[in-house]
């Protein structure tokens, strides 16, 4: 870890406090050797309209995804991207973005698939930085010329495929982080978002409904550890040691929840099902549940 | 298509993808503020819910021979792509005869050449904006 962690008091209660930095910490450390700041937003022009000085942009849609396969870039593609952004394997990467860090958390999760060791989120993201009146610029940095090794993506630990979720039914908890209307099947897309093509509405059998925003405070920062435990342990019934799968519509909001469960609450076996409802709601011969109750997981063949 | 809008489409087409995004940002920056009478009365505007970011619009059709249309948009600075597209429509269509606007092809947003850079979801929001404008013109003409 080339850049020291933020010793902020609030973070010390989290399982992995070194995964977060405050806006004031970042303001002090901008320009530190070994630190690269990355902005990753939903709105692709937002970075260009003004960003934290020195930050580079990563576009989740065009840069983290493979062009032709519905998958992430491979090891060579990731190495190419890192070199283009001036990021070395040993660098500390701090990611921030819009909408309480949805896409920032998504980018962090993809960095984690490649085992990039030190990658952190800016607590409160872009909104908090701006609310505090901190500096923004339109000047784009010229990334330095660096090398980044080709590291194969490891999908086994933190990523779930549809088959993994089918095998998980009845064996471990699922967290559905979409809105209550999407969960019940009343609608198949987010409130105020257009239809994104799921044929059926509802949720994966036995999944608990915990909308992602329950982890975020008003100012886009993460809630305290005690508040998060109230939501996920007392509220959703998760227990220490659980294998958990989180999903949403395309995997971005559930990356936020994956971050909370893994790095803030310390669950060691959490997977993000990035196929999420756009895959599950359209897949042939997979069960769904409609309505507000989680429903029972179907009996497993051979179980 | 009105010539002003056709020219904007040509401008986009002549650029590389990265330059197209820069041009869209310039449009976003130049979206005019609402006139006071509308800025003080947001209820007079209609939200285009298909857009991923808040976008409000309204229009007026003049009682002249051309049925000249005046367009008004409002979108926050945190939504630059949405603002940018609103601004393209404003610059290309504001002050044009109703019939000319109604004749704009529904898939005109695709012609800007942004479909690879911008997610399908957002492109649909842009198409919805144009659809909403046409619907409101038809409503105004029928009234």
UniProtKB/TrEMBL annotation, chain A:
InterPro entries: Rhodanese-like_dom (IPR001763), Rhodanese-like_dom_sf (IPR036873), Thiosulfate_sulfurtransferase (IPR051126), Thiosulphate_STrfase_CS (IPR001307). GO terms for molecular function: thiosulfate-cyanide sulfurtransferase activity. Residues 31-138, 168-289 form the Rhodanese domain. The lineage of its organism: Bacteria, Bacillati, Actinomycetota, Actinomycetes, Micrococcales. It catalyses: thiosulfate + hydrogen cyanide = thiocyanate + sulfite + 2 H(+). Keywords: Repeat, Transferase. It comes from the Bacteria. SUPFAM superfamilies: Rhodanese/Cell cycle control phosphatase. SMART domains: RHOD. This is Sulfurtransferase.
């Amino acid at each position: 870890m080339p850049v020291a962690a933020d010793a902020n008091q609030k973070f010390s209660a989290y399982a992995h406090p070194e995964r977060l930095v405050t806006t004031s910490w970042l303001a002090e450390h901008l320009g530190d050797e070994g630190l690269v700041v990355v902005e990753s937003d939903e709105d692709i022009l937002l970075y260009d309209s003004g960003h934290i000085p020195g930050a580079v942009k990563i576009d989740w849609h065009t840069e983290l995804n493979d062009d032709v396969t519905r998958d992430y870039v491979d090891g060579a593609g990731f190495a190419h991207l890192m070199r283009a952004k001036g990021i070395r394997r040993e660098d500390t990467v701090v990611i921030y973005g819009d909408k309480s860090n949805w896409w920032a958390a998504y980018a962090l999760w993809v960095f984690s698939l490649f085992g990039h060791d030190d990658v952190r989120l800016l607590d409160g993201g872009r909104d908090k930085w701006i609310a505090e009146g901190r500096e923004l610029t339109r000047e784009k940095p010229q990334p330095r010329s660096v090398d980044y090794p080709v590291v194969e993506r490891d999908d086994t630990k933190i990523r779930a495929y549809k088959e993994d979720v089918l095998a998980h039914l009845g064996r471990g908890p699922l967290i559905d982080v979409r809105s209550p209307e999407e969960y019940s099947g009343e609608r198949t897309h987010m409130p105020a978002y257009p239809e994104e093509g799921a044929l059926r509405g509802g949720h994966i059998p036995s999944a608990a409904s915990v909308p992602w925003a329950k982890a975020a405070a008003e100012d886009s920062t993460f809630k305290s550890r005690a508040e998060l435990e109230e939501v996920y342990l007392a509220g959703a019934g998760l227990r220490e040691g659980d294998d958990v799968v989180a999903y949403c519509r395309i995997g971005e909001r559930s990356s936020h929840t994956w971050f909370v469960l893994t790095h803030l609450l310390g669950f060691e076996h959490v997977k993000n099902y990035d196929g999420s409802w756009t895959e599950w709601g359209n897949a042939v011969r997979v069960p769904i549940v409609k309505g507000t109750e989680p429903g029972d997981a179907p009996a497993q063949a051979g179980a | 298509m009105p010539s002003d809008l056709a020219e904007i489409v040509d401008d986009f087409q002549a650029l590389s993808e990265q330059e197209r995004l820069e041009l869209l940002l310039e449009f976003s920056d130049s979206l005019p503020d609402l006139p006071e009478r509308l800025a003080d009365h947001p209820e007079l505007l209609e939200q285009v819910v298909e857009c991923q970011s808040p976008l409000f619009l309204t229009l007026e059709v003049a009682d002249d021979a051309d049925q000249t249309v005046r367009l008004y948009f409002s979108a926050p600075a945190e939504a630059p792509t949405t603002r940018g597209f609103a601004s393209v429509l404003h610059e290309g269509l504001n002050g044009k005869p109703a019939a000319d606007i109604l004749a704009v092809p529904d898939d005109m947003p695709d012609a800007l050449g942004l479909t690879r850079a911008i997610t399908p979801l957002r492109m649909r929001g842009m198409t919805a904006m144009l659809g909403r404008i046409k619907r409101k013109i038809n409503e105004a003409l029928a009234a």
